[in-house]
Amino acid sequence: MKAGTDMVNESQRPAAHRQYSAVLDLRVHDPRERLPLLEMTLSVLQPGEDVLLIAGTEPQRLLDHLQSHYSERFDWEAVQWGPELWQLRLVRGPSGA
């Protein structure tokens, strides 16, 4: 997994014009449900599809998990990085390895 070099500010990309293959708002789920929901969501994404993850706190543990388990299959970019809202876009790579 590679950190996106171009941090995208939502003001640069109108929300109405950006569509994601899936959106997972982790804020509305019990912490014990978050990782299984993420795993399930990632398992169904096809190459080139993406998911927007939304968190209310900095998702460092999540990023560590993604780096250790999915670094070969997904790239990521920060869409919004705090201090009150974190949004992370994960994109399944073309090989789907």
Question: Which features does this protein show?
Answer:
alpha+beta; four-stranded mixed sheet; 26% strand; 4 strands; 2 helices; 97 residues; globular; Translation Initiation Factor IF3
CATH superfamily: TusA-like domain
By CATH, the architecture is named 2-Layer Sandwich
- Strand order across the largest sheet: 1-2-4-3
- Quickly name the level 1 CATH class: Alpha Beta
Q: What is the CATH fold-level name?
A: Translation Initiation Factor IF3
Order of helices and strands: EHEHEE
Instruction: Output the radius of gyration.
Output: 13 Å
Overall number of strands:
4
Tally the helices: what do you get?
2
Considering DSSP H and I runs of 4 or more, what fraction of the residues is helical? 25-40%
The proportion of strand residues reads 25-35%
Distance between the termini: 12 Å
Average residue-wise pLDDT: 84
> Into how many domains do the coordinates divide?
1
Instruction: Give the biggest sheet.
Output: 4 strands, mixed
> Could you list the spans in which at least 5 consecutive residues all have pLDDT below 50?
1-14
Q: Judging from the principal axes of the Cα atoms, what is the shape?
A: globular
Classification by helices and strands = alpha+beta
Describe the protein.
- The chain is built from two helices and four strands; from the N terminus they run βαβαββ.
- With 97 residues, the protein is of the alpha+beta class.
- The protein has a single domain (15-90), classed as TusA-like domain (Translation Initiation Factor IF3), CATH 3.30.110.
- Strands 1-2-4-3 form a four-stranded mixed beta sheet, with helices on one face.
- The protein is globular, with a radius of gyration of 13 Å.
